[in-house]
Amino acid sequence: MTMKIGCEPYLRAASLFIRYTVFVLEKGIAAEDEFDQNDEKGIIYAVLYRDQMPVSTARFLPQGEKQARLTRVATLKDERSKGYGAQIIQALEQYARDEGFEHLVIHSELTARAFYEKIGYKPFSSIYEEDGEPCQSLEKYLEGEQY
């Protein structure tokens, strides 16, 4: 397994491939809703590869000087339940620490909330709908206490 984090075009392409497969083809989300203005040049993507095959991804969006949002977390169907999603999140948490970020936010589908809670994220919003799915926002302070 190889983890890559960066804004290079090949990482963007690998991430978009995974997301198209998972969100558009598998979950039926409209492509125009899945791909947005945040999928532009310079955005940070994390991609986990098994050999040459991209299997899991997430996107890192700064939301201020100390806060960022982890978005579009996805793992190909045949690769789930192997811990790849947790590896992606942990890699982006380390990237965030290295870049001086202290607070991470994730907008989670309710079906994935337990996964995020298991790796230390805590709900902080009421339930809302996003792209036709019930969701809730979760957060994690990287150094423990809120600032």
Automatic annotation (TrEMBL):
InterPro entries: Acyl_CoA_acyltransferase, GNAT_dom, GNPNAT1-like. Pfam families: Acetyltransf_1. GO terms for molecular function: N-acetyltransferase activity. It comes from the Bacteria. Gene3D superfamilies: 3.40.630.30. SUPFAM superfamilies: Acyl-CoA N-acyltransferases (Nat). The keyword Transferase applies. Keywords: Transferase. Residues 3-143 form the N-acetyltransferase domain. This is Acetyltransferase, GNAT family. It comes from Streptococcus merionis.
